[in-house]
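S1.2 Input.
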Amino acid sequence: MAKINFGGVTENVVTREEFSLEKARNILKNETLAVIGYGVQGPGQALNLKDNGFRVIVGQRSGGASWKKALADGWKEGTDLFDIETACRTGTVIMFLLSDAGQISAWPVIERNLEPGKALYFSHGFGVTYSDQTGIVPPEGVDVIMVAPKGSGTSLRRLFLEGKGLNSSYAVYRDATGRAWDRVIALGIGIGSAYLFETDFQKEVFSDLTGERGVLMGALAGLMEAQYNKLRAMGHSPSEAFNETVEELTQSLMPLVAENGMDWMYANCSTTAQRGALDWKNRFRDAVAPVFDRLYKSVASGKEAAITIEANRQENYREKLSAELKQLRESEMWQTGTAVRKLRP
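S1.3 Output.
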């Protein structure tokens, strides 16, 4: 394990250089990895593990869209594609990759197949951290571990096929066998992680829920709408408002930030942009700080988990979600985005 300095704080990090794929294969050579769920994370993790030479099976409810997707991806019914009960009974590592809501309903099946010595693997700390709401309490005698890729399963798979990798966090909630650490790191390398940084189940879910509602998705979308609406209200055309709000950010500036950091992006912009950005950065930071305070408290208290669970329990959740996404998609701002993207060379 490497000790790496992150801005003055030393953290434990595992890389492919010190923990090779060959080592991961050797650790898991007698294991059957049962990937339960073939929705968001399932396909990427299952296919990457399979391509990396691990023994993988998929457990999924028969006949649904995800089952059909698994068949289309090359999994064969009765060979490496089974119903959830059969996969859980067969697997020595049960990779619980259903949605947070899906995990609640499937937990009784998972729990009754968790024999001592097996490992229960998560990619999100939600179910265990909010066990008072989910009912997910792993039995004694079972390793409880987590590898959480910092991105979607689609990104994990795409980067794998490009010969790259997605960074992931890892955690050991319970080491019942004495092999939990080896198992979790081997799985992290096997799914295609570029490197693995240490966390715990609670910190992972608190940071994840805050990030999704904050900068990564909720705050970003809200900030974009606020600027776009202001520019439109002041007489700017839709194309100009969109280009100055979204297109330049995603196509020009964020790639520069990803490449070498925010300061490097600033250094590669005009002096007018540099001065204005530096002058206004702290004003935006201070304006939204109280919102982030409220957000984190809502996550830590379990309120956000309760909202999520209750929403997913509604029979018409998918219909409501589709309606909300349709409203977003058909707004002037994102209709403009569709037109702008078609103009990209």
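S1.4 Remarks. The beta strands are 2-6, 9-15, 33-36, 56-59, 81-82, 93-96, 119-122, 143-149, 166-174, 193-198.
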